[in-house]
């Protein structure tokens, strides 16, 4: 980008401006940042929904695991379209666990105390865990429809038929 400066500022002495420092920085490799975001989302879901027995790094193949420990400006080999069926199976089980735990948490809190989802998750207004799991399914190469069908089945099994119909 071209930075136009006024003549009065050309002779000014002092530290380098923040704009010039920002332009000197290396560009990040966006797919690598997106890969890190997926891991952070997975870790947050595990923590927030108290999922037991989940090993987050088992949801990634060897290329994906190696990419986590690289500089964000480096161009890394990320997982391609062909995935190991075992890893896909583990990912699918994880997403279904997230949906089940979210529905169970919501239903138990509403039955016990008649508390809304916003009150149960006060800092997460508007965060719909089943929708987040469906969005995460895109990144993990799992069918979104499978996650949504499981969500509907869970709603019906907990007696929330009106939500399941929607």
Structural description of this entry:
This protein is elongated. The protein contains 9 helices and no strands. By secondary structure, the chain is mostly helical. The protein has helices spanning 7-10, 18-24, 30-48, 62-67, 85-113, 117-120, 129-139, 144-157, 161-165. It has one domain (26-111, 127-163). It starts with 6 loop residues before the first helix and ends with a helix. α5 (85-113) packs antiparallel against α7 (129-139) and α7 packs antiparallel against α8. The model has no long low-confidence stretch (mean pLDDT 82). 17% of the residues are buried. Helix content is 60%, strand content 0%.
Shape: elongated
Please trace the helix and strand order, writing H or E for each element: HHHHHHHHH
Helix content: 55-70%
Radius of gyration: 22 Å
The total beta strand count reads: 0
Structural class, please?
mainly alpha
As residue ranges, the low-confidence spans are none
Q: Provide a count of the helices.
A: 9
Instruction: State the end-to-end CA separation.
Output: 49 Å
Q: How confident overall, as mean pLDDT?
A: 82
The domain count comes to 1
Domain Rab3GAP regulatory subunit C-terminal: 1-166
Organism: Rhagologus leucostigma
Protein name: RBGPR protein
């Amino acid at each position: 980008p071209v930075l136009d400066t006024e003549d009065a500022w050309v002779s000014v002495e002092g530290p380098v401006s923040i704009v010039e420092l920002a332009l000197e920085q290396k560009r990040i490799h966006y797919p690598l940042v997106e890969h890190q975001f997926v891991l952070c989302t997975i870790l947050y879901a595990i923590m927030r929904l108290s999922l037991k027995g989940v090993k987050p790094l088992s949801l990634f193949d060897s290329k994906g695991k190696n990419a986590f420990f690289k500089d964000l400006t480096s161009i890394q080999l990320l997982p391609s379209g062909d995935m190991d069926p075992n890893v896909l199976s583990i990912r699918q089980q994880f997403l279904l666990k997230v949906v089940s735990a979210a529905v169970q948490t919501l239903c138990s809190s509403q039955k016990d105390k008649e508390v809304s989802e916003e009150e149960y998750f006060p800092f997460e207004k508007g965060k719909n865990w089943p929708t987040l799991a469906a969005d995460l399914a895109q990144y993990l190469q799992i069918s979104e429809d499978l996650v949504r069908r499981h969500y509907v089945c869970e709603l019906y099994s907990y007696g929330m038929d009106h939500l399941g119909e929607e």
